[in-house]
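Two proteins were folded this term; both appear here.
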Amino acid sequence: MLKKNTNNACNIRYGDIGKLSIKIAIIIILLAIMVLLFIIYESSVLGSPDTVGENIVGKSGNKTIIIVLVDNNKYEHELETAWGISICIEKGSKAILFDTGPSPEVLIHNSMKTGVNLSSTSIVVLSHEHGDHIGGISALDSYAHKITVYVPHGFPIRIIEQLRGKGYNVVIVNNTIEIMKNVYILKPLYGPPWEQALILNTSKGLVIITGCSHPGILNIVVEAIREFNKTPYIVIGGFHLIGSPLQQVEEIADQLVRLRVHKIYPLHCSGNRIRRYLAEKYPQYYGDGGVGLVIELSN
């Protein structure tokens, strides 16, 4: 009898464990379903850039690829950070470089790591004259004869002459111009200094790429909306908000959301205040990023 009672106790314990295991498995499955549904909701209802991730640089085909080659914010660990910004836009077989960062060495290193071939660059857009945006252009000197460099009016003549002396074709921008199909330079606005932004006109809205936003990020976005009569889809780049009062930062972030910007990527001189505020209050609109960020868009 004692032996029989012991076996029954063991059977009860094993049965309880089995039931507990089933319950845990059901909970895990339910959690997995909830995560999957959330991901589907984010991509289909809220919408997002078609792909944001790694290892998609190369043949862009019928897509436009945006990759942050230089930034002072860490994102991909193998890449070097530096105070400045450089963003590559691959469209078909052509590449546009928006700003070049402060150093040719950093630009070359990060280009090699990300698989960006600088020799395919046909256009360089320099947002403004500051060294953390133009200092890396000598990385392209070997290909200068086939590169057109667009600078805003008011850009120092001395630097323009240096670039032309190296073989670059330099164009001074006074008004909004189309430099490639559905790719525009927004007319320069005054900060100081004079500064221009790059605009990609996509089926989902405007992609607005900024250097430092010395004229004010809101002024740039509003001017782009006025020029193209289209809502902004993505705003990415430097917002010039480091050291700005928290209230001002919050008001600017709120206004960007009210302007119906779908995704906001504060880089370079934007500062951590706006990054934290967007991440906490508007997580669906905040785009985390830094050097190595890749965004893929359908043409």
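Next, the second protein.
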Amino acid sequence: MRVFRGDLRHDVDRLAFGPGVRLAASAVRSNQVDVWDAVTGIQADAWSARGCEVTDLGFLPTGQVLVCVTGHPLQVIDPEAERYGLIFPGAESKSLDSAVLVATGGDRVFVLHAQRRPFVGDFTLAAWKPVAGGKYKVEWQVGIDQTVAGIAASEHGLVAVATQSTSRWRSRVRSDLILYDAATGVERAKITERAITWGRADRLRFFPDGERVLALASGIVHVWETARGNHLGQFPARLGSELLTDVAVHPSGKVLFTSGEDHRARLWDATTFTELTAWEWSIEKLHSIAVSADGALAAVGGETGRIVVWDLDL
């Protein structure tokens, strides 16, 4: 077990593993992104959004870090070259200026762009595909006129978007999970759940085989099958006062990881949704969790910028 603490001084609410053992972390309140070697604990880079809010992050297969910053096109950090810049030019359309959420699947990058305030108002979901010179170009885009809580992309040709709409008199809330074809942007399915209320930027994840998708909504993890939209289950069965804050899927698809306000990271069976084990460290509440692509490492982000990385033996 290793504890990292870099330039972040607030709750670490975004974690992502990239190629190899690279780990990126951000804290919205500090507008900072730190990049680490998850094995040695050496900090490879630290990047500041200069007063803007960092809302999401991810990795390109090349190891570059993708950063969503409110009011700006998608930013790219290249720790190897110590270079920052744009390979996703927002000048192609004003609707692509403000990147809010990002997901990667195959060689495509899927970005949710806000036309108004982040997470409120109209959005554009754009698929960016690599072109010559290391740049990316928009392959397709679709408009979304509902509140958006999260996006995810699978390696099997699907993109999921969690949306929410309220009736005219605010008496009814409808939550939808919309599945798009990753190559064309055509809507493949829509799963409607009136009993679920998405929160602000809730977590959305695909299983490795693309046959199931899960969402963390209001502290509860829900799982659906993508082919028919059937709700397969949820956990925990009883919700206490301290909620789950993030969820990650192991590359095997057999187990799930969660972080929680009760200071614990937990391991769950992905079929029965029963708890298998739990870990606890002295870093107070946990706000984010991630698992490396090879399934060998896991990491959690806590309060005051602290990150715990540990080895998995599953």
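The CA atoms of residues 126 and 200 lie 20 Å apart. The chain has a mean pLDDT of 85. These notes refer to the second protein only.
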